[in-house]
């Protein structure tokens, strides 16, 4: 395989270089489309003082919730506390700094960061605590606040398929924040269900081009369901 091959064979290699006090951007929504093995590797490494940017923080004992157990996360930038009691407890006790961000704004912060755009104006949050202290401008008679974009030292992403060059395809709603997160990391690591050979993915189906991806690893996923709802 050529020097463009980005496949790594161990989680240690996948997360090599992660250090204390770094910023990690994580894809996923609830427990859907989360890079389970990469999160577990951060838990194993014991890396501390992390700023984690993600829609939410998993649940107690799974997903990003694992990193709360040993106080590995210093700050969460997220839009939803979710079903995680430990997250709520650490927030209320002042042990965890939390920057609550509207969901669409959070997605755009990642996308803009990946596109090299330092900031953007949005109407979302104007006139609320979200807008406190932020620059305001009026466009066409409506007020907008200035939001800064986000980049991370690492981005950890879950995809359905990737080729050895790092070109990625997501599956249904597991796509969620993953494509935006993938663009915003200095080092982007993608955990996938299937690795295919270059040329097997049609260019028209690739959702994250390999230019954004540094490492690819094949994972084994539990795919835990956050809330099971059934009917008779």
TrEMBL record:
The keyword Electron transport does not apply. The keyword Cell division does not apply. It comes from the Bacteria. Pfam families: CoA_trans. Keywords: Transferase. GO terms for molecular function: CoA-transferase activity. PANTHER family: ACETATE COA-TRANSFERASE SUBUNIT ALPHA, KETOACID-COENZYME A TRANSFERASE. This is CoA transferase subunit A. It comes from Psychrosphaera ytuae.
């Amino acid at each position: 395989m050529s020097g463009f091959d980005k496949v790594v064979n161990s989680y240690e290699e996948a997360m090599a270089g992660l250090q204390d006090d770094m910023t990690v951007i994580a894809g996923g929504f609830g427990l859907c489309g989360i890079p389970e093995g990469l999160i577990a590797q951060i838990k194993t490494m014991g890396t501390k003082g992390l700023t984690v940017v993600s829609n939410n923080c998993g649940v107690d004992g799974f997903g990003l919730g694992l990193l709360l157990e040993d106080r590995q996360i210093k700050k969460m930038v997220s839009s939803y506390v979710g079903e995680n009691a430990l997250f709520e407890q650490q927030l209320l006790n002042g042990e965890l700094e939390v920057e609550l961000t509207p969901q669409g704004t959070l997605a755009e912060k990642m996308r803009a960061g990946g596109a090299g755009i330092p900031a953007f104006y949005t109407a979302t949050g104007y006139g609320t605590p979200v807008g406190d202290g932020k620059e305001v401008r009026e466009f066409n008679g409506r007020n907008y606040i200035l939001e800064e974009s986000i980049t991370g030292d690492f981005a950890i992403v879950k995809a359905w398929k990737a080729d050895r060059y790092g070109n990625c395809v997501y599956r249904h709603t597991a796509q969620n924040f993953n494509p935006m997160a993938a663009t915003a990391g200095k080092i982007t690591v993608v955990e996938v269900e299937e690795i295919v050979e270059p040329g097997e993915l049609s260019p028209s189906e690739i959702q994250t081009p390999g230019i954004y991806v540094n490492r690819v690893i094949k994972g084994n996923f539990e795919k835990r369901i956050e809330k099971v709802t059934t009917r008779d």
